[in-house]
Please model this.
Amino acid sequence: MVCTLYGIVFDMKKGSVDLICDVAELISVFDAEKKDQDILQSVVSTVAWHMRAAVCSIYIYEEERRELVLRATQGLRPEAVGTVRLALGEGITGRAVQELRPICVGKASQSALNCPFPGIEEEKYEAFLAVPILRGLRRIGALVVQDGVANYFGANDTKALRAIAAQLASVIETVRMLDEVHGETEGSSRVLAPKKSVHEGILRGRSASAGTARGRALTLGSSQSDRCLLPDAAGTPHTLEDFEKAVERTVTQINQLQRQTGEELADVAVLIFSAHLLILEDEQFSGRIIKRIEDGTPAVKAISVVVNEYAEVFASSKMPLVREKILDIKDLGNRLLRNLLNEEADECDYKGQIIIAHELLPSDILKLSAENVEGFIVSSGVTSHNAIICRSLRIPMMAVAREVADGIPEGEELLVDATQGIIYLQPGEEVYAKYRKLDATWEALHKASDVKPETRTQCGERVQIFANINLLSDLEPARRFKAEGVGLYRSEFPFIVRNDFPGEEEQYDIYKKLVNQVAGKSVTFRTLDIGGDKMLSYYSNVHEANPFLGMRAIRFSLQNKEIFCHQLRAFLRAGAEGNTRIMFPLISSVDDFEAARDIVHECMDQLEKEGIPFCRDTQLGVMMELPSAVEVAEELAQEADFLSIGSNDLIQYMLAVDRTNEQVSKLYLAHHPAILRSMNRIVSAARTFGKDVSICGDLSADPHMLKFLLGIGLRKFSIDIINAPAIQRSVQETTLAQTQKIAETMLGFGRISEVEAFLETLG
Ligand code: PEP
Ligand code: MG
Model:
């Protein structure tokens, strides 16, 4: 597809259109009169984010001094802003501005032009693309992107940056003009003034749940966080009565916390604080404290000592379930102490703290979220259920290497940009200010109110956007973002956070709430998908060498018929109250599907006999996420009522690339010809047999893949609903004819490199 923007002709390519539109939107909301609106900083952050570039910077050209000065950066040290100056012609940037042309260098270290600025860690970046910002032939500045991966930028990136540079010229002129009006000279202007910064450093990692978190580092598992600390008041006398009152207050607070969490997270919060209460009610626990107090130990010290004794016993346990309770006992101890000392209960929570942990359990995430934690930095791989829970709770989470996590000092002030994967240690005011603006900008760009209830292509074809729901609390954003229904309900979360398998009634209550809350819109329940990296702590009796290839999803359900039947009965009963379907994950053969379907029919017969209302014509579908299922797609389409492409797993299994393993993440390619052809085959099979087909994996959030999917005939997309505005915009900007052509071309390639070259030409 070809389009013209700001006089530049584009072939549409991955990300570029969105990037240019976002920057155009940023610029259009720029209010020149508002001096505090740091538009350039927002632009560099937006460009870096879209291009997945480690660095994006804007330099402004000072004509009198014939120098370029760094004005805004995402990725270089913030204190470099206003201090880094380049003579015209100096380095790659200086040369690009001098010669009025973009310069793209694949390996900066080998380029004669390269001249990295000392002290800002620029030498780490090999790929370098500098585009001059011009007004006619007049030099205004430069827009620069850098990345650690050599040859990272291509011809299309140059085109995209040129389009943005063209838009930026007038904004920069306005900013400069305002500075002059306000009596500031160019050399010492507000725009260019060196910033004072206490910024100490930047660490990098991978985003697991996007967002920005601010707070102090608290490492779980460190001697400080796992212990109940002895307050200064250790010697203060407190009576036994004081201790008993503290226990009473603690019980009330925990019950209150449990109730409140239960209201907000009805499906998963059940008894997450039960361990606290159980320990508190344990006579041995309180008995030991009472005995010490009676023996003359000050109450504060008695509590700390006993709590720490328990923590040590838990820590040395061979049973993972017991080891998991360290956080609970320590929280409980701190709460007791605060109540004894009559301190604010709020002080017991995790507000203002960013948890650094090697491993986290989903139930810990829920507890810490109820106690107002700001964000997480995890140093082992991020399991998909932890990432999904954090995304649903809208808590930022980042994955970093173990050494990175270990290097963060306890109590350090942090700003975690879990969207771009950056951790700022001791961020200065300018970093905070930048992120305040960035957050506001992102909010403005992703406003739910911009979503229309109906989505159509430019040529009028109807497309449906559904929500992927993980927790019931996701229903509120689904409503706000006008989801047309629930395309995937991941039913495993109520299972993951409990201490035992939830029974039929408990599940029925959850599913009924879901069905009632979507008020007539369709809901596709997925049966339990545990195994792989989604383990149940109470079902770890099977140790598997390759859990992703083991007792996962439908295999677990078929082997544990009783658990499967409880869930199916609960689904079928909830279906009596609405418009629901059931689908099975990880189906590898028609036989798997038939076995699952037979059990559904058995459950229906039982319910009928028992006189319990349920939905007899519930449609039954297959999640297409295994290569073997693709090979029998026609037979599956014939047998099932609908197919849903689980692209997250389809890519993993088709390419044999672990979706949670960072080391092979570059091989996890949605545009691999095998994936493209598989998806086409699935859609064709469904169409041949007149069956409904949709996709519920994350890949439709990629604008190019979305076009491909439209081109092969998909019209139903189930997504993390926060992506709805962007997906709707992409659909509206395209015609079916364009998408069909794109799909046809992409399907003709046998090599990844050919697909990539084609995507490059798309612009
Ligand atoms: C998928 O595999 O694409 C999918 C939607 O399921 P999950 O991410 O829960 O495995
Ligand atoms: Mg899957």
Remarks:
- The mean pLDDT is 84.
- Residues 56 and 145 are 4 Å apart (CA to CA).
- The two ends are 8 Å apart (CA to CA).
- The domain at 2-182 is CATH 3.30.450.40 (Beta-Lactamase).
